[in-house]
């Protein structure tokens, strides 16, 4: 999905580090020598440094649907029932649609 988004803008990315750990991506990013691509929901967990810029992917907007499959067997697992109960009450649209800062406040102050 990310490759397609960059390809549509004639941009070729060459990953230098791949990991399944958001903490690792964050640590690399905070050095100021690396960039990272993370989903919108993870951006809100990042503590940006003064060298951090958050740049949303807006052209094209990249989205993906996620599905959870739970067995219809009754009563089902405790974990599956709890997950379904919580998911039914979530308003993820409100969370994901919140505006994101384009530049960390410290960076704006430093640019001045």
**Whole-angstrom Rg:** 18 Å
Q: Major sheet, described briefly?
A: none
The helix content is 25-40%
Shape: elongated
Q: β content, as a range? A: under 5%
How many H/I helices?
Answer: 6
Poorly predicted tracts of residues: 103-112
Q: What is the average of the pLDDT values? A: 76
What structural class do the secondary elements suggest?
mainly alpha
Written as H for each helix and E for each strand, in order along the chain, the element string is HHHHHH
Rounded to the nearest angstrom, the distance between the terminal CA atoms is 36 Å
Q: Got a strand count?
A: 0
What's the layout of helices and strands?
Blueprint: H1 2-7, H2 22-30, H3 40-43, H4 78-89, H5 92-97, H6 105-111
Q: Can you tag this structure with a few keywords?
A:
112 residues; disordered C terminus
Overview of the molecule:
The protein is an all-alpha fold and 112 residues long. Helices cover 39% and strands 0% of the residues. The chain has 6 helices and no strands. It has helices at 2-7, 22-30, 40-43, 78-89, 92-97, 105-111. The N and C termini lie far apart (36 Å).
Concise structural overview:
The protein is mainly α and 112 residues long. It contains 6 helices and no strands.
